[in-house]
Design brief:
The structure holds two protein chains of two kinds. In chain A, helix 2 crosses helix 4. Chain A contains seven helices and no strands. Chain A has one domain. Helix content of chain A is 52%, strand content 0%. In chain A, 41% of the residues are buried. By secondary structure, chain A is an all-alpha fold. In chain B, a hairpin with a 5-residue loop joins strand 8 and strand 9. Chain B is of the alpha/beta class. Chain B has one domain: FAD/NAD(P)-binding domain, CATH 3.50.50. The chains are: A mainly alpha, B alpha/beta. The interface between A and B is large, with 66 and 66 residues.
């Protein structure tokens, strides 16, 4: 028969022991990463757009390190990146996905609202994001609009709610077996 | 090209099926070398983070996944020690007897060349070696077999809540059978239910290959070489036997490894890729491809998530990624009034969920953005529940792995994968999602919603069968066209039923290894 288990499991000593092993894992993970296959880092203009766009989708993303995150991932070899885009089996350039998408967002903002994304009000940005999420904004030139919206929103959720700090912000214990010593991988 | 010292067996791929093969053959005294294309990973590399864990997933040489319903390749695959099983959820089910006879019973898919009774003792043997936790009596659908060696997973609050919903609709639930130690087992510690299975379990509780068969293979004397990409299987002049493989090591050197027998265990994409890349004058369509089916009949499970928000706490972060409960009341195959599809589905319920990632709370509501999304996350963090319908889809010949032209002479061509769900699977998904929301509501959810039709698991591509004209291997995974070339893994499945495939792939490999040992003289 099934047992009812109404108690949260105690944190056994083993969990702490495993956490101690995390440092070893990080050392192993960071040292061999190569720069050879990295893509161009973000420009200042793209960084500004990215920060505002991601904070529109998931407030708090900018403060959680949106620019540092995307920039760091694009500097890694492709197979070492952890961007949510990885799940979509996107065959093209990752950098182009984000840069073309951001440029398309900004163009659409000017076309529909007479202002660039950075100049729009919060409500204007939310309305713009909604038009992009619907999947078929007029004269969109970039990665598929619905996909771009979905991927960026998931990136924002990673940053705001998926890190140790983000999970604890939700009132949940992180409960790591091996705690990450950085929120995301970087070139070591 | 340098020639290495000959071995008895080369196993290509250090995932679940390759590890079973390597362990069993090495234990039988064979000299076994394993070539794995990806990096070496130990348990200490399994960082508890859904962000970091993405490095365990993916197929780097996939160029494109396309078609009407593109398969989710990255999420369902992995390279390096343990392969995709390094991040699997350890939901270990047996196929049902009728899963083996879908063509003769229902006129769809293809029959397996073996039946449940042929595989039963292998299921039992693997179960005894690995340790599966469950309650066989509560699984009223379970095919005959030995009782589980481990007690079932404890039921946490989310499981208790969702069980109410199933029971209110007259449906049975049982503890989900899991290859996870619920108490110390053969030197492995018991699970602490923190829900990091998807990130790779470093505790040893979840039976990933690093904890079980890959470890045992090394202990039995198998030699494992990581970052060694096998580029071609080499045959003798008449093309009737494999004589070894050409492998490229991490330094870029190409080596010839002679072997008396070759096992390809590269999963559903890399295995057909290698066979196609090994074409010769004698095998112009690719090795073992006289039937023209290598790379075809690729299929998946038609899956969908159902989500609920509750007024009460669900403790949804506790447990294991695979879930706490299973219901196979909807496994029956035949279409019937109110059931406009052939094939069945099962429910995996009460997943331990993290806030982020593909199966996390956030992705259940892609429509929400801004402060509304953040409020949802705060509400859902401990009052969310989820379950997944795992449904049958029919293998279609048009669903395939194919080469993308343009590779250099000494490189393997990259892959394109093409897939669409049959209409039957679309109807199954629609039906299951309606039922799932009703279950959530019956459990007391104040809101219930569902996700899209998605692909879960990769099956087929090198299917087994009795007829060499329409299949790649026999019932032992031996290629019809070559006496000493075997395939292992879920790529062998002619059809996939509606259960997670790792246990069946392991049992098949276990059975094949025993056959290789007993028939070694004839095979080599």
């Amino acid at each position: 028969m099934m047992r009812i288990h109404d108690q949260r499991p105690a944190s056994p000593a083993r969990r702490s022991l495993l956490k101690a092993g995390g440092g070893m894992a990080l050392m192993g993970a960071c040292t061999p990463l190569a720069l050879a296959a990295s893509e161009a880092p973000l420009t200042a203009g793209a960084s500004a757009l990215w920060e505002v766009w991601l904070d529109t989708l998931v407030p708090g993303a900018a403060q959680a390190g949106a620019v540092a995150y995307l920039d760091s991932q694009l500097r890694l070899p492709r197979d070492q990146r952890v961007l949510f885009l990885r799940y979509t089996d996107w065959s093209g350039s990752h950098a182009a996905f984000y840069l073309d998408g951001l440029a398309a967002v900004d163009r659409l903002s000017r076309a529909l609202h007479g202002q660039g994304l950075l100049e729009l009000s919060t409500q204007g940005r939310l309305a713009l994001a909604g038009q992009i999420a619907a999947g078929a904004p007029p004269d969109w030139q970039g990665p598929p609009a619905g996909l771009f919206h979905f991927v960026c929103k998931a990136d924002g959720a990673d940053l705001v709610f998926g890190t140790e700090r983000g999970i604890e912000r939700l009132g949940l214990a992180y409960r790591a077996h091996i705690a990450p010593t950085l929120p995301w991988p970087v070139v070591g | 090209m340098k020639t290495l010292e000959a071995v008895d067996v080369v196993v290509i791929g250090a995932g679940q099926a390759g590890s079973v093969m390597a362990a069993r053959l090495a234990a039988a005294g064979k000299r076994v070398t394993v070539f794995e294309a990806g990096p070496a990973r130990t348990l200490q590399d399994m960082t508890s983070s859904q962000i970091w864990a993405r490095r365990l997933k993916g197929t780097p040489d996939l160029l494109e996944s396309t078609g009407a319903h593109p398969l989710g390749i990255t999420f369902n695959t992995g390279q390096g020690s343990g392969g995709a099983a390094a991040h699997h959820y350890a939901c270990w089910f047996r196929l049902h007897p009728e899963d083996f006879d879908m063509q003769s019973r229902h006129g769809v898919a293809a029959d397996w060349p073996i039946g449940y009774d042929d595989l039963r003792t292998s299921y039992d043997a693997v179960q005894a070696e690995v340790g599966i936790a469950g309650d066989a009596e509560m699984e009223r659908w379970r095919p005959p077999g030995a009782a589980y060696p481990l007690p079932p997973i404890p039921r946490f609050r989310q499981g208790e809540i969702l069980a109410r919903g199933f029971e209110a609709l007259g449906m049975q639930v049982a503890p989900l059978p899991l290859a996870i130690a619920t108490q110390p087992f053969k030197g492995r510690a018991s699970c602490v239910y923190d829900g990091w299975c998807d990130a790779g379990c470093p505790t040893g509780a979840l039976a990933n290959p690093q904890t079980t068969y890959l470890k045992w293979a090394v202990e039995a004397g198998a030699v494992v070489h990581h970052q060694h990409r096998v580029q071609r299987i080499v045959t003798d002049q008449p093309g009737r036997r494999a004589i070894g493989v050409i492998v490229r090591n991490g330094r870029g050197e190409r080596l010839f490894q002679p072997a008396a027998l070759v096992v390809v265990a590269g999963f559903a994409l890399e295995t057909p890729r290698l066979l196609l890349a090994s074409a010769t004058d004698r095998h112009p369509q690719g090795l073992a491809n006289a039937s023209g089916t290598v790379g075809r009949y690729l299929h998946t499970h038609a899956a969908g998530g159902v989500f609920g928000m509750f007024d009460e706490d669900t403790d949804c972060q506790l447990g294991v990624s695979g879930g706490q409960l299973v219901c196979q009341d909807r496994y029956a195959k035949a279409a019937a009034p109110g059931k406009d599809f052939i094939g069945g589905y099962q429910w995996l319920a009460a997943h331990s969920v993290k806030p982020n990632d593909l199966l996390g709370i956030a992705c259940s509501r892609p429509d929400l953005i801004g402060e509304a999304f953040n409020r949802f996350m705060e509400d859902a963090a401990n009052r969310f529940a989820s379950m997944t319908a795992v449904g049958e889809s029919l293998p279609l010949a048009e669903n395939r792995v194919e080469f993308v032209p343009g590779a250099a002479v000494d490189e393997m061509p990259k892959m394109r994968v093409i897939h669409r769900f049959d209409d039957n699977a679309v109807r199954l998904h629609r039906h299951a999602m309606e039922e799932g929301q009703a279950i959530m509501k019956a459990a007391g959810a104040k809101a219930a919603w569902h996700g899209p039709l998605v692909s879960m698991h990769l099956l087929g591509g090198t299917r087994m069968g009795k007829d060499p004209a329409s299949s790649v291997t026999d019932g032992y995974g031996r290629c019809h066209d070559l006496a000493n070339l075997f395939i292992a893994g879920p790529g062998l499945f002619p059809s996939g039923g509606a259960v997670n495939p790792t246990f069946t792939a392991s049992a098949l490999a276990h059975r094949s290894a025993a056959h290789i040992v007993s028939a070694w003289g004839q095979l080599t």
